Amino acid sequence: MVWSRHSIPSWLSAAATRVDFEANPSKMLKDGNDGCSLEQHQHRSKPPLSDANLGFGGRVLSAAGAAVLSAILVNPLDVAKTRLQAQAAGVPYQGLCYPACSEANTILPNLQSSASSVRSNLGLEPVCRPECSQYKGTVDVFYKVIRQEGFLRLWRGTNASLALAVPTVGIYLPCYDIFRNLMEDFTTQNAPNLTPYVPLVAGSVARSLACLTCYPIELARTRMQAFIETQIGVKPPGVFKTLLGVVDPAKSTNFLQNLQSYRILWTGLGAQLARDVPFSAICWSTLEPIRRRFLDMVGDKASLPIIFGANFSAGFAAGTLAAAFTCPLDVARTRRQIEKDPSRAVKMTTRSTLVEIWRDGGMKGLFTGIGPRVGRAGPSVGIVVSFYEVVKYALHHHTHLNQ
User: Fold this and answer.
1) How far apart are CA 385 and CA 177, in angstroms?
2) Of residues 294, 285, 316, the one with CA closest to residue 385
3) pLDDT higher for 62 or 324?
4) Considering only the top CATH level, what class is 47-92+149-402?
5) Are 261 and 251 in contact (CB under 8 A)?
6) Are 30 and 39 in contact (CB under 8 A)?
7) What's the CA gap between 100 and 103, in Å, rounded?
8) For residues 298 and 313, is the Cβ–Cβ distance under 8 A?
């Protein structure tokens, strides 16, 4: 049996149908072999309600629900990735030992030779063996965070993730849909050969817009996940206090200088864009062909489970690939965001940061945290895209039934 692209559900593949029909309508009529008239095929090629005519509010609602679900599920992997990258950048994770470690060091005081250990044995500061303050991998981060800080610390920064995810994804996915539809309409009529590159450009532009809008919250999340509160019983600072801590060191008595100092909240924006724009370009240019191929296999039999499965599988594959390729840029972004010296933070560039990472750790340093990053990105993209498309599908059918 021969499948034609117009057999894909139109609400997910209107662009592909328009390209085929407008490029060669007679061939499409012949290949379809279904006896439809030219007017019927023109009707099929029009963007359907759920994809093209769904309002911006409906798209934002779909994206926000996907963002909340993804942020909660994958936050522990985000914490592990950030801790490993911050450790490689020189952030010390000391001062928190679980009870068994402290007891072992107290029983064997003769093994402690440093001045710090002597003070610890006298009760002036806690004892902690070197391996207790070093993370060896993703699983080790989970284990030590739970033992030293508590299980809920794996969700450190979730409030920032939620505050970031809803507006970011609420801007990102709807804008991607809108830009993609507009660009596909333009390229179909004027430059059909450029149509395959539309997802790459639309994803890059939409992601850049989202990053510029919500970057300070992204900065706060990274710092909340990277730094730990060493004072027992003290609640770690939230998003607002974290951002105040970023701005305060740069403040002066001059009002105009204080206004200019707030630009430090966008420190590392270049690195963020350098990571997210290629990520989006790789992700969408990989996701769209895979998703359409899956849907092409089922034809008109698409249902909610099939739509969810096709989008999750395509998103998982695309997110994994994009995360692996952009890991060095993610390491550079983290290093720039956790820099505490305001004067140095302003002078750092993405290129100089990558050179510094290469000098300190070589290839291994550039791919620090790749395990949790890939483990986070694949499911996250799969969840966001599949949930987004399923909600769009449900809203489309709800609107269609009420008409």
Assistant:
1) 12
2) 316
3) 324
4) mainly alpha
5) yes
6) no
7) 5
8) no
